[in-house]
Amino acid sequence: MYSVSIDQLESLQRILIDAATYAKDIGEQEDSYQFIRSELMRDVVLKELIPDSIRASRDLGQFRALMQNEGGYKDRRDVIWKSMQALFEKLESGSTAPHAARTSVVLEKFIGEEVQRNWDKALGRAHDDPEGAITMARTLLELVCKHILDEKSEGPIDDELPKLYASAARLLNLAPNQHSEQSLKQILQGCTSVVQGLGTLRNKEGDAHGHVKIYRPKARHAELAVNLAGGMALFLVRTLNDD
């Protein structure tokens, strides 16, 4: 669940238009504006889509002042409608869990559209094309690991996912043998096992090597692979940007 509903977002849009066009006394709507704004700001997914005009305006007076630079009333309404389109699309889609949406936002912001599109394709294919989704899940991790190696000026790059991940993990200080704390080592060993498992799952069940498989994967297998790959990708990107 997101922190605001579509009804609240529509209410916010009306409040903004009223403020920008002097349709109502902003004092009557100040509390509602600040509440919805604060709810958007605390949502890890939606806050990435908040228009700059809202992000910069702690109260409606500040927002109204900003809108004075946007031409006449019609121009201001158009600016508000367009700036909130991404928020409405995110809420109206309703097909992606907040964790998946957060992963999509982070991947696009810190790595680029290619990786983000790969993630979205993996999500979309999990139910209708499990084999394809498993392939995309592995490709996602491969792209993220290659990005990390490129950022760290490390090469040459091996195309095998386990080796790619081992190199990236070492550069990010995520290799199990780089730590002495047993609980942390177990977690990091688990991450390595997840990556190795994803590679094996696709090699045996996916479509990357001529459909050679032990049995046909079901949607639940694809969902597991996609969610594991997304979680690992998010963890790697967060670690890279915290480094």
TrEMBL record:
Domain of life: Bacteria
UniProt-recorded name of the protein: Abortive infection protein-like C-terminal domain-containing protein
Domain Abortive infection protein-like C-terminal: 162-237
